[in-house]
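Anyone have tokens for TetR/AcrR family transcriptional regulator? Sequence:
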Amino acid sequence: MKSTKVASTSSENEPSETNVPRMPVQQRSQQRVEAALAVAERMVEAWGPERISIPEIAKAADVPRASLYQFFPDKYALLARITEMHLTRLTEALAERALKQSTESSYSDWIGALIDATANYYDTHPAARILVLGGPYSHAAYLAQANMMATIGGVLRSATELKIPGVRVPQSPDVATLAVEIAFACMKHGYHQEGGITPAIRAQAVTAVVAYAEASIPGLAKAFKAGKKQGANA
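Reply: yep, here.
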């Protein structure tokens, strides 16, 4: 046992025979994790979350099983990581769209554009659709979703107040985040009942969000139209 340990230490201290610098352990681990996440995402799309496992992912990604368990104690931790990655990308896309100079003539049209952007993301990323709308599959994934809702709610509040001078979106209760939750509930219903976010579901989400927002923020619709007219005359 002792001689083996000494030999191993000596080998690690010796330069590579090829003189090629060894990749840092952290970098190698990161590449393995990224490869495994990409494979796991494809497996989720093909088989669903229930049928995959860490050993199967490791085998398909050609990475040591132990290197995955180092970061993900079970498949649900790995799925939560994929979920978090997609929610981050979706949040960034919505923030960019919400703060972009809009051409919509009504608050309803603007909300519709944001809901379309969300639905289009889920349409083009099946794994995100499965894990987010079909989940959450763990407490960690639930927390990621809750954080995403709050973040998008903050973006919606800021964008609304920026686009409509004089309007203030209440924070208690958190009207913006509740509006996001309403849209999300409509999309989850569409996923479970119709297999996706159909145009009809998108329209229902817009109706629900706008009705709630206009009831909770008096003068919102009128103020939005007035703001658009002022922008056109400027």
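The two ends are 82 Å apart (CA to CA).
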